[in-house]
Amino acid sequence: MSNDKGLQDVHVRIGTKQTTRAVELGQATEVYVASDADHRLISKIVALCEKHGVNITYVDTMTELGEACSIEVGAAMAAVIKQ
Known about the structure:
Layout: E1 12-14, H1 16-24, E2 28-34, H2 39-52, E3 55-59, H3 62-68, E4 77-81
Parallel strand pairs: 2-3
Antiparallel strand pairs: 1-4, 2-4
InterPro entries: Ribosomal_eL30-like_sf, Ribosomal_eL8/eL30/eS12/Gad45
Organism: Paenibacillus crassostreae
Protein name: Ribosomal protein L7Ae-like protein
């Protein structure tokens, strides 16, 4: 994501609960997951994304993902929402 402008220009849901809900409701087009997030969380969202056919992009750190989402804290995951 270092070459991206970040996720601030698109509609996103940030965090585990919001990302999970977006995937379950069929609203997510892509999910970003921080590689350093809790592996129990990662495995659940990966399985859910595979079930719903949602692409996953891995980001190195929660801090990097938080910055890309224009928030001041780290984020374990974020979903890009269909327009």
